[in-house]
TrEMBL record:
Protein name per its UniProtKB record: Sulfate Permease (SulP) Family
TM segment ranges: 29-51, 63-81, 120-141, 161-182, 194-214, 221-241, 356-376, 382-402, 414-444
Subcellular location: Membrane
Keyword Transmembrane helix part of the UniProt annotation: yes
Source lineage: Eukaryota, Sar, Stramenopiles, Oomycota, Peronosporomycetes
Domain Cyclic nucleotide-binding: 721-850
Organism: Pythium oligandrum
Domain STAS per the UniProt entry, residue ranges: 476-674
Keywords: Membrane, Transmembrane, Transmembrane helix
Pfam families in the cross-refs: cNMP_binding, STAS, Sulfate_transp
CDD domains recorded: CAP_ED
Length: 870
């Protein structure tokens, strides 16, 4: 919401309306009078708080007018500048205690050697400059859009301060009732005299009455009537009892008669020749605290108005308006002010959408300032005291009792600690203690927060069906951990314990001392693939895996022994689906404690994703990651780091926790590396990555795409189908298979299909790399920005999901390197059904199985990391 200064200029404010709407004008004037009745008594109470030191007693008529004049200035500024035509802006309670502390400190520091005129002149000038400079700070914060930094001030500490304001208002209210100085708990001892107790009773009852009226009655006229009724009832009772105003003064109901202060006398307080500028440095800590607290409180006021109106305001702009109001008010000798959110909301709910309300308040308060009348000498003391006691009850109940439902228990303790410290020590030291307790509470809570989160995540690479089966069986071998927040000394032990519980190692057994032997118990049954030599054999695309047959009940799982052969067939699909073909062994946690499951797959890789980590200190590096690295190294577990900030990388290198090859730019690349290691793809020319992390084609990819004579070569569609389907190359199902596929050599950046197109084909990738993209909202619109979903590696198929679903494509695909692909069109697929039905059935069965496995493994897409979470 922005301010149009021309729209809210003085000329337009007082311009004649085109049509006189008497009911609307009457309503506006009514609520203007109501707001005036609510604000004027409060200003006298606030004056009593700010100038509570005994040295100000003889100057109170003029000082009270000065506070009232400050409210006039605030209301003028808010009426002119605020985008809310019904805004009420006055001297607010948030800065009262700081102003009072400054005034008291100035009087005490000057001591008895200085005259009262000097003390008053120094006080009003210094307080005015403090308020003006605070306002300029608010303007600067608004212009630089720094209002959000106010959220760094803990709410419990501010709540403790606001509760202290309530208590101070109670002291001030009782002091007004009795005419005594009451500003702390020991001073309440004066109430032991029944005379003073009787003087306080009307003020207490009046404050309670106004509090209950505001809580039980929605009609604002009732509260205004209650305020007006108090002095009226007093004089009715006074005269009915046969007494007069002089008798009331003698008893203490009304202040002693004092000569009224004129408007000129108010300005005569600013005697710059008597100002002692040396007191300013002593007030700087209080000024800094006042700036923070008043800014925070003002933001809370704006937020309260936002919530009630259901509209969003520009907080930085509103803070600038508050700043200009305080700057002008301070230069004119005024005090800290802001929106009075309760009265602003009250006026808004009345349907009054006019600046006439603000003008009424301005005129009423200006009249009090200009008239040479001493209000305090003619109105009963308890009237002003009741207003302060009403504010005190509201603040104390809100911030010491009712706020319990809005805070955590530890935060509630912080609030009370701040409140008690401010009362027992001092305002500044008490708030610093509150900030310290809040910081300790933060450390305690942050230490207990979950920093390490285990996710079952796969890389975004689309792989061959058999590779997916292998990875599905061994998914527990890769532990993906997502770390978040700032890793510091307080969270180091929690990180260490969490990771140790999530990483599993093989439990030592008495059967073998060799850590490479992992035994699993099997039921005695014939094993498919058992050779004449008594060895269990299966072949893969890169070699033959041979496992010696050990006894009837135990079959050891040892690292695969690679033997190069001419065959490139996949591990037999039937063997992969056998429940016995896995690496399930007795396991325990890394720290030696029992795992949740007695048997499982031992961890081989730990991928730590630092994308959500904003920083780390040396203690966390030493106490967590160095110990983890040493423990993992002893167990043969590889620990990798992804998306790590440069400064954290340097810290890990300097402490010899990680080397350059242990860092990966993204978690997706790190996960793909781990999967390739599990599949032994580092030595397999057909499956090793064709693209470096920087996106350029590798040397091996260039060799695969071009032969010695420059011709583009690949293994052919029979080999691709053989690897994908788990069938031998000599199978009769592959005879004349080439006639159903089209072979293409495509350049980098070639688009295979777009989002929203009708699927007429799917593809097998022979060489190269392909990216699959989709809209972030998963729609089929082709006009939106695409985001990476996954990438396809050689030997895998893509485009088949939409093809078999017979729906418009939700994804698009393009090559990121030169590539060789085989295309299966819908026409050829239908022809295959009639010309080679066995091949068609097998192809359909395996592709559907592969799609189902892909959906199972990739259940959640992470748009933040452009990866698929399994």
């Amino acid at each position: 919401m922005t301010v149009d200064l021309e729209k809210f200029s003085v000329r337009k404010l007082f311009a004649k309306p085109g049509k006189l709407d008497l009911p609307t004008l009457t309503n506006n004037l009514t609520y203007g009078i109501i707001n005036s009745i609510l604000t004027i008594p409060c200003m006298y109470g606030y004056a009593a708080i700010i100038f509570s030191h005994p040295d100000f007693a003889t100057f109170m008529p003029a000082l009270s007018k000065l506070v009232m004049f400050s409210s006039v200035v605030h209301q003028i500024m808010f009426t002119l500048l605020s985008p809310l035509p019904f805004a009420i802006g006055q001297v607010q309670d948030a800065g009262l205690i700081f102003l009072s502390a400054m005034a008291t400190s100035i009087c005490d520091s000057l001591g008895e050697k200085e005259s009262l005129d000097t003390k008053v002149a120094t006080t009003v000038v210094v307080l005015g400059l403090a308020n003006a400079s605070m306002g300029l700070c608010f303007v600067l914060m608004g212009k630089l859009k720094l209002a959000g930094i106010m959220s760094y001030l803990p709410m419990p500490v501010v709540g403790g301060y606001l509760a202290y304001i309530g208590l101070f208002c109670l002291y001030a209210g009782l002091a007004l009732c009795t005419g005594l100085v009451m500003n702390d708990i020991p001073s309440l001892g004066h109430l032991g005299d029944w005379h003073y107790i009787i003087l306080c009773i009307p003020g207490l009852l009046g404050g309670l009455a106004m509090f209950f009226v505001t809580k039980r009655c929605e009609n604002s006229l009732i509260l205004s009537g209650c305020i007006v009724a108090m002095p009226v009832l007093f004089y009715i009772v006074l005269f009915s009892a046969g007494s007069d105003i002089y008798g009331a003064r003698d008893y203490g109901w009304i202040s002693r008669e004092a000569s009224p202060a004129s408007f000129i006398e108010m300005w005569q307080l600013f005697n710059f020749s008597k100002v002692k500028w040396s007191v300013i440095p002593q007030q700087l800590p209080r000024w800094v605290a006042m700036v923070c607290v008043v800014a925070f409180s003002s933001c809370l006021d704006v937020a309260a108005i936002e919530m009630d109106m259901g509209q969003r305001f520009n907080l930085n702009h509103e803070l600038s308006i508050i700043g200009w109001s305080n700057a002008v008010s301070g230069l004119l000798g005024g005090y800290a002010g802001s929106y009075v959110f309760s009265q602003t909301i009250l006026t808004y709910r009345s349907g009054t959408n006019s600046r006439v309300v603000g003008v009424c308040v301005i005129l009423a308060e200006a009249l009090v300032v200009l008239l040479p009348v001493s209000v305090m000498s003619n109105v009963p003391r308890f009237f002003f005291a009741a207003m302060l006691i009403f504010v005190a009850i509201d603040l104390l109940l809100e911030w010491l009792v009712l706020v319990y439902r809005k805070l955590m228990f530890r935060e509630y303790i912080v609030l009370w600690a701040s409140f008690i410290a401010i009362n027992l020590i001092s305002l500044e030291i008490g708030m610093l203690i509150g900030l310290g307790v809040a910081f300790l509470n933060f450390l305690l809570g942050y230490t207990k927060s979950k920093v390490v989160n285990r996710l079952f995540k796969r890389s975004s690479a689309i792989r061959k069906h058999a590779e997916r089966v292998i990875l599905n069986h061994r998914r527990e071998a890769i532990v993906y951990l997502e770390l978040s927040g700032y890793l510091y000394f307080g969270s180091s032990l929690r990180i260490l314990e969490d990771v140790q519980k999530l990483v599993h190692v093989e439990k030592p057994t008495e059967k073998s001392d060799n850590p490479l032997h992992r035994t699993i118990q099997l039921e005695p049954q014939p094993l498919e693939g058992l050779t004449r030599s008594g060895k269990f054999e299966a072949t893969t695309q890169s070699g033959r895996y041979i496992m010696p047959a050990m006894g009837i009940h135990y079959l050891p799982f040892i690292p695969f022994v690679r033997q190069r052969t001419q065959s490139h067939t996949l591990l037999n699909q039937t063997i992969l689906n056998e429940p016995e073909y896995n690496a399930i062994v007795p396991i325990q946690c890394l720290d030696g404690s029992p795992a949740e499951e007695a048997e499982g797959v031992p961890t081989e890789f730990v991928v730590m994703d630092f994308s959500r980590v904003c920083g780390m200190d040396a203690t966390a590096a030493h106490s967590s990651f160095m110990i983890l690295q040493q423990q993992c190294k002893r167990q043969g577990i590889i620990m990798l780091f992804a998306d790590v900030l440069p400064e954290i990388q340097q810290l890990l290198r300097q402490n010899e926790i990680a080397d350059d090859e242990d860092f990966f730019p993204t978690a997706d690349i790190a996960l793909e590396y781990c999967e390739n290691q599990l599949l032994d793809e580092d030595d397999d020319d057909d499956a090793a990555p064709l693209v470096h992390p920087n996106g350029r084609m590798s040397d091996r990819a260039s060799e695969r795409l071009s032969g010695m004579d420059g011709a583009v070569v690949d293994d052919g569609i029979p080999t691709l189908l053989n690897r994908f389907m788990g069938q031998p190359e000599t199978s009769a199902l592959f005879e004349s298979i080439d006639r159903f596929f089209y072979r293409y050599i495509v350049p980098r950046g070639h688009t295979f299909y777009r989002v929203g197109e009708y699927p007429e084909q799917f593809f097998f990738l022979a060489t190269g790399r392909v990216e699959v993209m989709m809209n972030q909202d998963c729609s089929s619109s082709h006009e939106k920005t695409l985001h990476l979903l996954c990438h396809v590696i050689p030997g895998a198929l893509f485009g088949e999901v939409d093809f078999f679903a017979n729906q418009r494509r939700l994804v698009g695909a393009k090559s990121i390197t030169h590539a060789v692909v085989y295309e299966m069109t819908r026409a050829n697929y239908n022809a295959m059904e009639h010309q080679a039905p066995e091949l068609w059935k097998r192809l359909r069965e395996v592709v559907i199985h592969s799609m189902a496995l892909s959906i199972t493994n990739n259940t959640c897409i992470s748009s933040d990391h452009n990866a698929i979470i399994a």
